[in-house]
Amino acid sequence: MVGIRSVSYFPTLNIRLAEMVALKELPDKTKDIIQPIFPLRRWFNSNKLDNTIQKIEESYSGRSWVADIDSYKRPEADKRKEVHEQIERLLDPADGYRGWVDFIGDTENAVPCLQYSDPRQFQKQFDAMAAIGRGCVLRITSPNSWRALPALLSEFSRNPEVRKLIILDFDYLVPSDLTKRVSITKTFVDQILKYMGPVPTVLSSTSFPKSFDDGKTERIIVERQFFDEMRKICPDAMLIYGDHGSTRELKSGGNGEPIPPRIDYPLRDRWVSIKEKGGSYQAVAKELKDTKGVWDDDLRIWGTQMIETTAKGDDFGISNPKLCTSVRINLHIHRQAYYDADVGQVYETEDDCVA
After folding, report:
1. How many CA atoms lie within 13 A of 348 on its CB side?
2. Cβ 192 vs Cβ 153: under 8 Å
3. Is 243 helix (H, G, I), strand (E, B) or coil?
4. Cα separation of 218 and 54, whole Å?
5. Which of 120, 225, 301, 342 counts the highest number of beta carbons within 10 A?
6. How is residue 343 annotated by DSSP?
7. Residue 106's closest CA among 163, 30, 53?
8. What does pTM read for this prediction?
9. Sheet holding 136-140, edge to edge
10. What are the tens digits of pLDDT across the range 230-247?
């Protein structure tokens, strides 16, 4: 099916190498039961947005995905490339966001997130996107958008025959703010029920740590706790789990010092990380595999095989932070995709993954 799919997991993924590798290496069976959200931006040093779309298609193999436009800060005029001008045209609200509508129409597997910087152009855009026939998504991310939610929902409730999805993306979720976040989110969910009834609604955020101590650490996946609590207190809502694939947006570079070897191992409800300052990826991988109650010999996907390869000292194992990140995302997405499935399904990968 091309359009919004009935799945239980919507990961939001950045257009970066680590995410694209992790997605590409997932078992096909896992790709079939998720629907990624891609805020579109420049791919590496590419000069055209076509390269971004090509990379998504290479990684996700012809399946439909949700398309939005990344809100990252645009470069100064003298540093802009053609791709930046393309993105600016997509954001232009003129004639009902005609540039964005045409772009979606030409990108056959993309399901559109509606743009709303100019509320006067929202309904015209909505009608044009609805005519494409893949469904329409309302993705709310910024504080101004939260305040505008009732007005947006009023507009979005029109065209009842169109398949719709709402995404509430809270970005970074601080563990100590969980109770407050649940209370605030309930008001938004209640607004959705008031204006639209039980429409599929994704709750998305990330709590992946910003720093790690040496040795072994375990961190609860707070976004999963958040979702499970919301599901309890909003039984009438059609809530769907979303997250950022165990990633966070890096706002600035490091301090130039070497990054100590660290491998993250996602489980169903927590991340286990082993970091060894002055050590090696091989030593970290061995320690992880020897950790009782953590390592799972029965899970056979690309991420686990990469860790095993590293533990053996193979040249094709993990050798840098970016590859470590790909391994973590690959394992995290797979685990979350089967969170509510029968226990055995997480192991039925079928694909013959070779590191």
Report:
1. 8
2. yes
3. strand
4. 36
5. 301
6. G
7. 53
8. 0.95
9. 9-11, 239-243, 201-206, 164-172, 136-140
10. 999 999 999 999 999 999
